[in-house]
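Pilot study result, target chain (342 residues):
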Amino acid sequence: MWIPYDDGCVSSILDTKADWVRIAEAAYPTTETDEGGASGVLDAFRGVMLAGPVSVMSAAFCEGSEPVVRFYAGEMYRNLGFQALTDALRADPAAVDAFFFPPSIVNTHSSLDRRVSPSARRMMETYRAYAGIADALGTVVSAVPGESTVIFAGSTARISVGRAEADLLTRAALHVEAALRARRRPETIRAVLDPSGKIVHFEPGAPARERLVVQARRIERARSRRTRRTPEALELWTTLVDGRASLVERFDGGKRYYLVLDNRAERRPMRALTRGEISVVSDAARGLSGSSSPTVTAFQRRAFLRAWRARPRSWGSRAARSSCESPRSSVTRRDTSSRRRR
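Predicted structure:
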C-alpha cells in the first residue's frame, strides 16, 4: 500500500505483491530496437509502481564530450524541457555522477540529495520542478562501460524504501541490465533447452548441463501462476548461470525454447578472490542483503578485505566513462560492476 505519513513521506510506491516476473519477461524482447524493448519494460514497471508516472532514459558518457542519449521513453520527458536537463548534465560532471552513476542500483532523489554536491543537488531540484514531482524512485544499471540506463517513477511526496523492497527492485533491474548487455552483443548460442529442462543442443563452453537444467526449471517455477506474484519468484529466476550465461526465451515452429547465450559482464577479474568471495562481494555491491548470520558476515569481511588488497589501481577513477562504444548495434549490452567504479 501507498501510505502517506504526517511529515509528507510515503512508505513506498512499490506493490510487492504485483507481477514482478513480468519485468524479467519484458526485459528480453524479440524486438530489434531498444525503443521497442523500453516500451515493454516500462509497461511492466508500471504494473509494480503504485505511483507514477514512470520513465526510462539511457545515455552514454565519454570524457570530453557531451552525453549521447541512446533512447528514452515515458511520460515525464514529454513535458520536461529535455534540452535543459541535457545542458545541465553536459556542464556539470558532478550532476552526471549523481544522476547516472549513483552508489547503488536503487535510489531515491531524497537520499541522493544528502550525498551529492550543491551543483548536482540544484540540477536534481531543477529536474523535479520541470517534472512536477517532489521525489523519485529509480533503478540505475549499466550494460556497458560509460553507459547508464535509468528507470524511475515520480512522487508528489518523499519516498522511503525498505530493505526487502530494495532487494526486489534490484533483482528486477539486474534483469534489465543483463538483457541490455545481451542485446548489444551478437548472439553466441551455447545450448538450447525446452521448458522442462531437456537439453536439445549443447556446445563446448556452455555451463554444466546440470546447472542449465536446474536454471530452466527454476525459471519455469518463477513464471508459474502460483509463484510469479511472490518475492521468491525473482530469487528463483537469477540473471546469469555461472556468472556468464543467460537463458533467453525464443519460439521456433510454435514451440518454446530457452537459448543459452554468452552474456558475461565486462569486468576486471579479481583473481585474488575465491568464487564464493566474488559472489558475496558482487551481491553486496548490488545492494542485495543476503544472510546476516555471523558466519556470512565474517565471510563478507574477509571477502571485502581481499577485494581491497587485489583492487586495480584504477578503482575510483573515471576510466569506465572513457571507454564509450560506437552507436548502438542492432542487438544491446553491460553489468553493474562495469558501471563507473567507485
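One observation from the pilot: The domain at 9-183 is CATH 3.30.450.80 (Beta-Lactamase). A full batch analysis is planned for the follow-on phase.
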